[in-house]
Specification:
Blueprint (H helix, E strand, L loop, with lengths): L4 E5 L3 E6 L6 E8 L6 E5 L7 E3 L5 E3 L5 E3 L5 E2 L3 H10 L4 E5 L12 H10 L1 E7 L2 E4 L3 E5 L2 E6 L4 E8 L7 E7 L2 H8 L5 E3 L3 H6 L12 E4 L2 E2 L10 H14 L6 E8 L3 H12 L5 E4 L10
Parallel strand pairs: 4-9, 11-19, 14-19, 16-17
Antiparallel strand pairs: 1-10, 2-3, 3-9, 4-5, 6-7, 7-8, 11-20, 12-13, 13-19, 14-15, 17-18
Length: 295
Amino acid sequence: MASKSQTTLANEIRISGVGVHGGLPANLTLRPAEADTGVVFVRTDLPGRPAIPARADTVVDTRLATVIGDGAGATVATVEHLMSALAGLGVDNVIAEIDGPETPIGDGSAADFVAAIDAAGLAELASPRRYLEMLQTVEIAAPGKRVALTPDGRFEMSVEIIFDAAVIGRQTLEVAVNPASFRREIAAACTFGFLAEVEQLRAAGLGRGASLDNTIVVDANGVMNPGTLRRPDDFVRHKALDALGDLALAGYPILGRYEASCAGHALNNQLVRALLDRPDAWRLTTDAPAAATTI
């Protein structure tokens, strides 16, 4: 059964590493939080320890990652993998203290976060969990791209990607998301990139922490580091991982079906913002679904 109560971590978590885009080291501490806190990032290295709620309206950049900011210059980049792990495992409230501008990339998937959350355990809180139940379809389309949220009694994902690279081509994923399916189908899929774009990315200040250990690298011949590719369709699975983290910025677990074709962080953020601007398209409910299939 889906939890009817809000949750937080039962114990503190500490994770260290480098950011995949900035290449800078960071120490991340996840602390238990009270009900209705949501996920809040705190930049402990900056004066005043600015706090940045993980919400769609605090997103300030979506180039290859989701970056949130406080509007006064404090930012945290690449929050989507952590947010995906928290949403996928049903963690509602966390204070995420970080002493750098970007979350650690780990192996490029959500696996390290999942292992840490599982080791820490979850604690139920006295307040009921509220779900965002879709009542009408909300859709964002662009040339060759589309994302939508439609009504459904549980949270499902239908994701399609299309790339010219032969090793990727067209891939699709259909999954009803719950903690078990998140661990099994999504969490271990690593981020990916193209060798031909490396110099362009680094000139733009991106990809500086990427390596053959944390990124599936595609060149003209296929995958340069096949050890990072756990399944042939990890490319679409990682897109689902990213999307789950982006959708978590809605602030509530969603009861609905997410459909995406050739989408990314920018379109996902536009979708969540459009959703929250359409109060006729959803309602908040404390009625948990019959099975644990929500984000």
